[in-house]
Amino acid sequence: MRHTSFLFLGIGLSGLLAACGGGGGDQDSGSGGGGTPSPGFVTTGPLTVTEVATSIPNPWSLAFLPDGRMLVTGRNGVLRLYAANGQSFSNVALTGLTGLTTAGQGGLLDVVVDPSFSSNRFIYFSFSETDSGNPSLNGTAVARAELDTGALALVGFQVIYRQTPKVASSGHFGSRLVFDRDGHLFVTLGDRQNADQQAYAQDLTRGNGKVVRITTSGSPAPGNPVLAGAQPGLWSYGHRNPQGAALHPDTGQLWTSEHGPQGGDEVNLTQAGRNYGWPVISYGQEYGTTQQVGMGTSRAGMEQPVSYWEKIDGTSWTGGQKSSIAPSGMAFFTGPEPSHWSRSLFVGALAGTSLWRLQLDGTRVVGRERLLANRNERIRDVRQGPDGRLYLLTDGASGKLLRITGG
Q1: Could you tell me whether strands 153-162 and 177-179 are parallel, antiparallel, or unpaired per DSSP bridges?
Q2: Which of 250, 367, 238 is nearest to 304 (CA)?
Q3: 193: CATH
Q4: What is the pLDDT of residue 372?
Q5: Full domain range(s) for residue 52
Q6: What is the pTM (predicted TM-score) of this model?
Q7: Which one-letter DSSP state was computed for residue 376?
Q8: If you write DSSP's letter for every residue of 209-277 in order, what string do you get?
Q9: Residues annotated catalytic, as ranges
Q10: What is the pLDDT of residues 94-140, one digit of tens each?
Q11: Structural domain count, the chain
Protein backbone atom coordinates (compact mmCIF):
# COMPACT_ATOMS: atom_id res chain seq x y z
CA MET A 1 0.00 0.00 0.00
CA ARG A 2 1.15 3.52 -0.67
CA HIS A 3 0.37 6.29 1.83
CA THR A 4 0.26 9.92 0.77
CA SER A 5 -0.33 12.89 3.06
CA PHE A 6 -1.98 16.04 1.82
CA LEU A 7 -2.11 19.35 3.63
CA PHE A 8 -5.60 20.64 2.96
CA LEU A 9 -6.96 18.78 -0.03
CA GLY A 10 -10.25 20.60 -0.11
CA ILE A 11 -11.71 23.98 -0.78
CA GLY A 12 -14.04 24.82 2.05
CA LEU A 13 -17.18 26.79 1.38
CA SER A 14 -15.81 29.75 3.27
CA GLY A 15 -12.66 29.59 1.16
CA LEU A 16 -14.66 29.57 -2.05
CA LEU A 17 -16.63 32.58 -0.93
CA ALA A 18 -13.50 34.50 -0.10
CA ALA A 19 -11.63 33.52 -3.25
CA CYS A 20 -14.46 33.81 -5.75
CA GLY A 21 -16.72 36.46 -4.32
CA GLY A 22 -19.59 33.99 -3.79
CA GLY A 23 -20.74 30.56 -4.83
CA GLY A 24 -19.54 27.13 -3.99
CA GLY A 25 -22.19 26.50 -1.38
CA ASP A 26 -25.64 25.15 -0.87
CA GLN A 27 -28.19 26.60 -3.25
CA ASP A 28 -31.30 26.50 -1.07
CA SER A 29 -32.92 29.42 -2.83
CA GLY A 30 -32.76 27.73 -6.22
CA SER A 31 -31.15 30.84 -7.61
CA GLY A 32 -27.85 29.16 -8.37
CA GLY A 33 -25.94 31.32 -5.89
CA GLY A 34 -24.10 30.18 -2.83
CA GLY A 35 -24.73 31.35 0.68
CA THR A 36 -22.82 31.98 3.87
CA PRO A 37 -22.05 28.67 5.57
CA SER A 38 -23.53 27.96 8.96
CA PRO A 39 -21.44 28.93 12.00
CA GLY A 40 -20.86 25.22 12.64
CA PHE A 41 -19.28 24.54 9.26
CA VAL A 42 -15.73 23.21 9.67
CA THR A 43 -13.35 22.76 6.76
CA THR A 44 -11.23 19.65 6.54
CA GLY A 45 -7.55 19.68 7.43
CA PRO A 46 -4.79 17.21 6.47
CA LEU A 47 -5.89 13.91 4.98
CA THR A 48 -3.98 10.70 4.39
CA VAL A 49 -4.79 8.74 1.25
CA THR A 50 -3.80 5.08 1.19
CA GLU A 51 -3.77 3.21 -2.12
CA VAL A 52 -5.21 -0.09 -0.92
CA ALA A 53 -5.25 -1.64 -4.40
CA THR A 54 -4.22 -0.46 -7.85
CA SER A 55 -4.44 -1.51 -11.50
CA ILE A 56 -8.15 -2.35 -11.31
CA PRO A 57 -9.64 -2.37 -14.83
CA ASN A 58 -12.55 0.10 -15.04
CA PRO A 59 -13.92 -0.41 -11.51
CA TRP A 60 -17.53 0.64 -10.92
CA SER A 61 -18.67 -0.48 -7.49
CA LEU A 62 -17.42 -1.66 -4.12
CA ALA A 63 -19.16 -3.76 -1.45
CA PHE A 64 -17.89 -5.18 1.86
CA LEU A 65 -18.54 -8.71 3.06
CA PRO A 66 -19.14 -9.27 6.80
CA ASP A 67 -15.56 -10.57 7.22
CA GLY A 68 -14.07 -7.39 5.72
CA ARG A 69 -13.27 -8.76 2.28
CA MET A 70 -14.32 -6.57 -0.62
CA LEU A 71 -16.17 -7.16 -3.87
CA VAL A 72 -15.26 -4.85 -6.75
CA THR A 73 -17.08 -4.87 -10.08
CA GLY A 74 -15.43 -3.93 -13.35
CA ARG A 75 -17.35 -2.70 -16.36
CA ASN A 76 -15.43 -5.29 -18.38
CA GLY A 77 -17.58 -7.97 -16.72
CA VAL A 78 -15.09 -9.10 -14.06
CA LEU A 79 -16.03 -9.41 -10.39
CA ARG A 80 -13.04 -9.40 -8.02
CA LEU A 81 -12.90 -10.53 -4.41
CA TYR A 82 -10.19 -8.66 -2.48
CA ALA A 83 -8.63 -9.61 0.82
CA ALA A 84 -9.54 -7.28 3.67
CA ASN A 85 -6.18 -5.54 3.34
CA GLY A 86 -6.48 -5.26 -0.45
CA GLN A 87 -3.14 -7.01 -0.98
CA SER A 88 -4.53 -9.95 -2.95
CA PHE A 89 -7.59 -10.71 -5.01
CA SER A 90 -9.31 -13.47 -6.93
CA ASN A 91 -11.68 -13.28 -9.85
CA VAL A 92 -15.17 -14.64 -9.19
CA ALA A 93 -16.65 -16.73 -11.99
CA LEU A 94 -19.84 -15.04 -13.24
CA THR A 95 -21.58 -18.22 -14.31
CA GLY A 96 -24.95 -17.61 -15.91
CA LEU A 97 -24.37 -13.96 -16.76
CA THR A 98 -25.54 -13.79 -20.38
CA GLY A 99 -26.33 -10.83 -22.58
CA LEU A 100 -23.87 -8.48 -20.87
CA THR A 101 -22.95 -5.51 -23.06
CA THR A 102 -19.80 -3.54 -22.27
CA ALA A 103 -20.25 -0.87 -24.94
CA GLY A 104 -20.14 2.80 -23.95
CA GLN A 105 -21.18 3.28 -20.32
CA GLY A 106 -22.48 -0.26 -20.04
CA GLY A 107 -21.04 -3.34 -18.39
CA LEU A 108 -21.03 -4.97 -14.97
CA LEU A 109 -22.04 -2.09 -12.72
CA ASP A 110 -23.23 -2.01 -9.10
CA VAL A 111 -22.94 -4.73 -6.46
CA VAL A 112 -24.54 -4.94 -3.00
CA VAL A 113 -24.52 -7.59 -0.29
CA ASP A 114 -27.76 -8.94 1.15
CA PRO A 115 -28.34 -7.74 4.74
CA SER A 116 -28.74 -11.42 5.65
CA PHE A 117 -25.65 -12.52 3.73
CA SER A 118 -24.25 -14.49 6.65
CA SER A 119 -27.17 -16.90 6.36
CA ASN A 120 -28.23 -16.73 2.69
CA ARG A 121 -24.95 -15.80 0.86
CA PHE A 122 -26.82 -13.62 -1.66
CA ILE A 123 -25.30 -10.72 -3.53
CA TYR A 124 -27.09 -8.50 -6.06
CA PHE A 125 -25.63 -6.71 -9.00
CA SER A 126 -26.76 -4.55 -11.88
CA PHE A 127 -25.53 -4.73 -15.44
CA SER A 128 -26.39 -3.57 -18.95
CA GLU A 129 -28.22 -6.36 -20.73
CA THR A 130 -28.78 -6.81 -24.45
CA ASP A 131 -32.14 -7.91 -25.77
CA SER A 132 -32.19 -11.62 -26.55
CA GLY A 133 -34.04 -11.05 -29.80
CA ASN A 134 -32.37 -7.84 -30.95
CA PRO A 135 -28.76 -7.27 -29.81
CA SER A 136 -28.93 -3.59 -30.81
CA LEU A 137 -31.28 -2.98 -27.86
CA ASN A 138 -30.29 -2.98 -24.20
CA GLY A 139 -31.27 -1.84 -20.72
CA THR A 140 -30.40 -2.08 -17.05
CA ALA A 141 -30.96 -5.44 -15.38
CA VAL A 142 -30.60 -6.63 -11.77
CA ALA A 143 -29.57 -10.16 -10.85
CA ARG A 144 -28.91 -12.09 -7.68
CA ALA A 145 -26.83 -15.16 -6.93
CA GLU A 146 -25.22 -16.95 -4.02
CA LEU A 147 -21.56 -16.14 -3.59
CA ASP A 148 -19.47 -19.26 -3.05
CA THR A 149 -16.24 -17.78 -1.69
CA GLY A 150 -14.58 -21.17 -1.57
CA ALA A 151 -15.19 -22.03 -5.21
CA LEU A 152 -14.97 -18.35 -6.24
CA ALA A 153 -18.20 -18.63 -8.18
CA LEU A 154 -21.76 -17.36 -8.30
CA VAL A 155 -24.40 -20.04 -7.85
CA GLY A 156 -28.07 -19.91 -8.84
CA PHE A 157 -27.79 -16.81 -11.01
CA GLN A 158 -31.22 -15.23 -11.55
CA VAL A 159 -32.26 -11.98 -13.21
CA ILE A 160 -34.90 -10.46 -10.92
CA TYR A 161 -35.59 -7.14 -12.64
CA ARG A 162 -35.29 -5.62 -16.12
CA GLN A 163 -35.72 -2.02 -17.23
CA THR A 164 -38.31 -1.94 -20.01
CA PRO A 165 -38.48 -1.30 -22.82
CA LYS A 166 -34.92 -1.91 -23.95
CA VAL A 167 -33.65 0.76 -26.36
CA ALA A 168 -30.76 1.38 -28.76
CA SER A 169 -28.35 3.33 -26.55
CA SER A 170 -24.99 2.82 -24.88
CA GLY A 171 -25.46 5.39 -22.12
CA HIS A 172 -27.32 6.46 -18.98
CA PHE A 173 -27.96 3.15 -17.30
CA GLY A 174 -28.25 4.60 -13.78
CA SER A 175 -27.81 1.28 -11.96
CA ARG A 176 -27.17 2.07 -8.28
CA LEU A 177 -28.61 -0.45 -5.81
CA VAL A 178 -29.49 0.31 -2.18
CA PHE A 179 -31.24 -1.83 0.44
CA ASP A 180 -33.82 -0.04 2.56
CA ARG A 181 -34.46 -0.81 6.22
CA ASP A 182 -37.20 -3.30 5.33
CA GLY A 183 -34.81 -5.36 3.22
CA HIS A 184 -36.23 -4.14 -0.09
CA LEU A 185 -34.05 -2.93 -2.94
CA PHE A 186 -33.97 0.51 -4.57
CA VAL A 187 -32.76 0.50 -8.19
CA THR A 188 -31.90 3.69 -10.09
CA LEU A 189 -32.55 3.75 -13.84
CA GLY A 190 -31.16 6.27 -16.33
CA ASP A 191 -33.10 8.06 -19.06
CA ARG A 192 -31.00 6.25 -21.71
CA GLN A 193 -29.33 9.45 -22.96
CA ASN A 194 -30.58 9.67 -26.54
CA ALA A 195 -32.61 12.77 -27.42
CA ASP A 196 -35.56 10.63 -28.49
CA GLN A 197 -35.60 8.87 -25.10
CA GLN A 198 -35.26 11.71 -22.58
CA ALA A 199 -38.90 12.77 -22.51
CA TYR A 200 -39.90 9.26 -21.39
CA ALA A 201 -38.49 10.09 -17.94
CA GLN A 202 -41.94 11.70 -17.46
CA ASP A 203 -43.80 8.65 -18.83
CA LEU A 204 -44.84 6.35 -15.98
CA THR A 205 -45.36 3.42 -18.36
CA ARG A 206 -41.66 3.27 -19.29
CA GLY A 207 -38.50 2.55 -17.34
CA ASN A 208 -36.54 5.58 -18.54
CA GLY A 209 -35.36 7.92 -15.76
CA LYS A 210 -36.96 6.17 -12.79
CA VAL A 211 -36.19 4.79 -9.35
CA VAL A 212 -37.91 1.52 -8.54
CA ARG A 213 -38.27 -0.34 -5.24
CA ILE A 214 -38.50 -4.12 -5.41
CA THR A 215 -38.32 -7.16 -3.18
CA THR A 216 -35.30 -9.43 -3.30
CA SER A 217 -37.22 -11.67 -5.70
CA GLY A 218 -37.96 -8.74 -8.02
CA SER A 219 -41.62 -8.10 -7.21
CA PRO A 220 -42.90 -4.57 -6.45
CA ALA A 221 -42.16 -3.87 -2.79
CA PRO A 222 -45.09 -3.33 -0.41
CA GLY A 223 -45.65 0.30 0.50
CA ASN A 224 -44.72 1.71 -2.90
CA PRO A 225 -46.68 4.75 -4.13
CA VAL A 226 -49.81 4.11 -6.17
CA LEU A 227 -49.55 6.05 -9.44
CA ALA A 228 -52.10 5.54 -12.19
CA GLY A 229 -50.69 3.61 -15.15
CA ALA A 230 -47.21 3.30 -13.64
CA GLN A 231 -44.91 0.37 -14.23
CA PRO A 232 -44.81 -2.09 -11.31
CA GLY A 233 -42.34 -1.12 -8.62
CA LEU A 234 -42.07 2.57 -9.47
CA TRP A 235 -40.85 4.78 -6.61
CA SER A 236 -40.02 8.13 -8.26
CA TYR A 237 -39.58 9.57 -11.73
CA GLY A 238 -38.21 12.48 -13.76
CA HIS A 239 -34.56 11.48 -13.28
CA ARG A 240 -31.75 11.84 -15.81
CA ASN A 241 -28.91 9.49 -14.85
CA PRO A 242 -28.80 8.75 -11.11
CA GLN A 243 -25.46 7.06 -10.43
CA GLY A 244 -25.29 7.67 -6.69
CA ALA A 245 -27.65 6.45 -3.97
CA ALA A 246 -27.52 6.07 -0.20
CA LEU A 247 -29.83 5.81 2.82
CA HIS A 248 -29.69 8.53 5.44
CA PRO A 249 -28.32 6.85 8.59
CA ASP A 250 -30.91 8.44 10.90
CA THR A 251 -34.09 8.73 8.83
CA GLY A 252 -33.63 5.80 6.47
CA GLN A 253 -34.67 8.04 3.58
CA LEU A 254 -33.23 7.51 0.10
CA TRP A 255 -30.89 10.19 -1.26
CA THR A 256 -29.60 10.09 -4.84
CA SER A 257 -27.21 12.03 -7.02
CA GLU A 258 -27.66 12.40 -10.75
CA HIS A 259 -25.86 13.78 -13.75
CA GLY A 260 -27.20 16.97 -15.23
CA PRO A 261 -26.43 17.79 -18.86
CA GLN A 262 -23.96 20.71 -19.11
CA GLY A 263 -24.21 21.88 -15.51
CA GLY A 264 -27.16 21.07 -13.27
CA ASP A 265 -25.77 18.03 -11.46
CA GLU A 266 -28.03 17.28 -8.50
CA VAL A 267 -28.40 15.69 -5.09
CA ASN A 268 -32.00 14.78 -4.30
CA LEU A 269 -33.98 13.55 -1.32
CA THR A 270 -35.78 10.92 -3.38
CA GLN A 271 -39.27 10.43 -1.99
CA ALA A 272 -42.14 8.15 -2.92
CA GLY A 273 -44.24 9.24 -5.87
CA ARG A 274 -42.34 12.47 -6.48
CA ASN A 275 -41.44 13.94 -9.88
CA TYR A 276 -37.86 15.25 -10.11
CA GLY A 277 -38.47 17.19 -13.28
CA TRP A 278 -36.17 15.90 -15.99
CA PRO A 279 -36.23 16.97 -18.83
CA VAL A 280 -38.92 19.59 -18.18
CA ILE A 281 -36.85 21.51 -15.61
CA SER A 282 -33.11 21.58 -15.05
CA TYR A 283 -30.26 23.80 -13.89
CA GLY A 284 -28.26 22.60 -16.90
CA GLN A 285 -27.74 23.71 -20.48
CA GLU A 286 -27.78 22.02 -23.85
CA TYR A 287 -24.26 20.80 -24.61
CA GLY A 288 -21.98 23.33 -26.27
CA THR A 289 -24.46 26.19 -25.86
CA THR A 290 -25.85 28.55 -23.25
CA GLN A 291 -29.40 27.38 -23.95
CA GLN A 292 -31.42 26.40 -20.87
CA VAL A 293 -32.67 22.82 -20.86
CA GLY A 294 -36.44 22.47 -20.70
CA MET A 295 -38.87 25.12 -19.47
CA GLY A 296 -36.72 26.59 -16.71
CA THR A 297 -35.50 25.60 -13.27
CA SER A 298 -38.82 25.13 -11.48
CA ARG A 299 -42.39 24.11 -12.13
CA ALA A 300 -45.36 23.28 -9.92
CA GLY A 301 -45.49 19.60 -8.99
CA MET A 302 -41.78 19.03 -9.64
CA GLU A 303 -39.17 18.69 -6.91
CA GLN A 304 -36.18 20.96 -6.37
CA PRO A 305 -32.79 19.37 -5.66
CA VAL A 306 -31.35 19.55 -2.17
CA SER A 307 -28.14 20.84 -3.77
CA TYR A 308 -26.85 21.33 -7.29
CA TRP A 309 -23.75 22.37 -9.21
CA GLU A 310 -23.54 24.70 -12.19
CA LYS A 311 -19.74 24.89 -12.30
CA ILE A 312 -17.20 22.08 -12.06
CA ASP A 313 -15.47 23.67 -9.05
CA GLY A 314 -18.68 24.52 -7.19
CA THR A 315 -18.48 28.27 -7.71
CA SER A 316 -21.49 30.31 -8.79
CA TRP A 317 -22.43 30.50 -12.43
CA THR A 318 -22.27 34.10 -13.60
CA GLY A 319 -22.98 33.61 -17.29
CA GLY A 320 -21.70 31.70 -20.30
CA GLN A 321 -21.47 27.95 -20.52
CA LYS A 322 -21.90 25.89 -17.39
CA SER A 323 -19.84 22.81 -16.48
CA SER A 324 -20.46 19.52 -14.73
CA ILE A 325 -18.88 17.62 -11.86
CA ALA A 326 -20.55 14.37 -13.07
CA PRO A 327 -21.53 12.88 -9.66
CA SER A 328 -21.29 9.16 -9.14
CA GLY A 329 -21.18 7.04 -5.98
CA MET A 330 -22.17 8.55 -2.64
CA ALA A 331 -22.24 7.66 1.05
CA PHE A 332 -23.20 9.14 4.40
CA PHE A 333 -20.39 9.20 6.94
CA THR A 334 -21.02 7.73 10.39
CA GLY A 335 -17.47 6.97 11.44
CA PRO A 336 -15.90 8.38 14.62
CA GLU A 337 -13.19 10.55 13.04
CA PRO A 338 -13.00 13.26 11.95
CA SER A 339 -15.93 14.35 14.09
CA HIS A 340 -16.96 17.23 11.83
CA TRP A 341 -17.67 14.71 9.06
CA SER A 342 -20.43 13.08 11.12
CA ARG A 343 -23.62 12.67 9.02
CA SER A 344 -22.00 14.49 6.08
CA LEU A 345 -22.89 13.25 2.62
CA PHE A 346 -19.92 12.42 0.39
CA VAL A 347 -20.32 12.49 -3.40
CA GLY A 348 -17.72 11.34 -5.90
CA ALA A 349 -17.12 13.43 -9.02
CA LEU A 350 -15.97 12.01 -12.35
CA ALA A 351 -15.51 15.05 -14.60
CA GLY A 352 -14.91 17.10 -11.45
CA THR A 353 -12.09 14.74 -10.32
CA SER A 354 -12.77 15.29 -6.62
CA LEU A 355 -14.72 14.19 -3.57
CA TRP A 356 -17.44 16.55 -2.34
CA ARG A 357 -18.51 16.74 1.30
CA LEU A 358 -21.97 18.16 1.96
CA GLN A 359 -22.64 19.13 5.56
CA LEU A 360 -26.31 18.84 6.48
CA ASP A 361 -28.73 20.35 8.93
CA GLY A 362 -31.65 17.96 8.58
CA THR A 363 -32.35 17.94 4.85
CA ARG A 364 -30.67 21.31 4.25
CA VAL A 365 -27.11 21.60 2.99
CA VAL A 366 -25.30 24.19 5.13
CA GLY A 367 -21.86 23.86 3.56
CA ARG A 368 -19.96 22.13 0.78
CA GLU A 369 -16.30 21.26 0.54
CA ARG A 370 -14.25 20.00 -2.40
CA LEU A 371 -11.62 17.41 -1.41
CA LEU A 372 -8.87 15.53 -3.26
CA ALA A 373 -9.05 17.81 -6.30
CA ASN A 374 -5.27 17.98 -6.56
CA ARG A 375 -5.10 14.20 -7.15
CA ASN A 376 -6.93 14.78 -10.46
CA GLU A 377 -8.65 11.38 -10.35
CA ARG A 378 -12.17 10.49 -11.43
CA ILE A 379 -14.01 9.15 -8.38
CA ARG A 380 -16.51 6.48 -9.37
CA ASP A 381 -17.71 5.06 -6.04
CA VAL A 382 -17.76 6.11 -2.38
CA ARG A 383 -18.38 3.70 0.51
CA GLN A 384 -17.85 3.63 4.25
CA GLY A 385 -15.98 0.53 5.36
CA PRO A 386 -16.59 -1.56 8.46
CA ASP A 387 -13.61 0.24 10.03
CA GLY A 388 -15.51 3.55 9.85
CA ARG A 389 -13.29 5.01 7.12
CA LEU A 390 -14.15 6.18 3.63
CA TYR A 391 -13.17 4.05 0.66
CA LEU A 392 -13.14 5.34 -2.91
CA LEU A 393 -12.86 3.74 -6.34
CA THR A 394 -11.19 5.79 -9.06
CA ASP A 395 -12.35 5.37 -12.63
CA GLY A 396 -10.36 4.27 -15.65
CA ALA A 397 -8.46 1.42 -17.25
CA SER A 398 -6.13 1.32 -14.23
CA GLY A 399 -8.40 2.25 -11.36
CA LYS A 400 -7.52 2.39 -7.67
CA LEU A 401 -9.11 1.55 -4.34
CA LEU A 402 -8.32 4.36 -1.88
CA ARG A 403 -8.81 4.65 1.88
CA ILE A 404 -9.15 8.14 3.38
CA THR A 405 -8.14 8.97 6.95
CA GLY A 406 -7.39 12.05 8.99
CA GLY A 407 -8.78 15.52 8.47
Answers
A1: unpaired
A2: 238
A3: 2.120.10.30
A4: 96
A5: 2-406
A6: 0.91
A7: -
A8: TEEEEE-TTSSBPTT----TTPPTTEEEE--S-EEEEEE-TTT--EEEEE--SBS-EEEEE--TT-B--
A9: 172
A10: 988 888 999 899 999 999 999 999 999 999 999 999 999 999 999 99
A11: 1
